[in-house]
Structure formats: structure tokens, C-alpha cells
Amino acid sequence: QEEVKKMLLIKEVNGSKIYAKSGWGMGVTPQVGWLTGWVEQANGKKIPFSL
């Protein structure tokens, strides 16, 4: 799990870390893309997101 977490780290800002994975659905019209993951704040709080 730690190795996967390292691969998903995309940015670190002021002690907070953003982990995410993108995807693209080509089998539908219109095509869709997404970015889903979580933010780990410096205080340890985790906030999930999906765009």
C-alpha cells in the first residue's frame, strides 16, 4: 500500500499532500475524464475528492 501511495502523490504544499489518479473514458460519447483522490493535511486530516 505504501508503494501505491508514493505513486499517487502529485503535489505537496505547506505540509499538505495531494494524492490522485486520473482516468479517461473513451467508450462513451462525449468522452469523459476524471481525477479522484484525497488530500492529507499537515494535521493528519484526510479529505477525499473527485472531479
From TrEMBL:
InterPro entries: Beta-lactam/transpept-like. This is Beta-lactamase OXA-24-like protein. The gene is blaOXA.
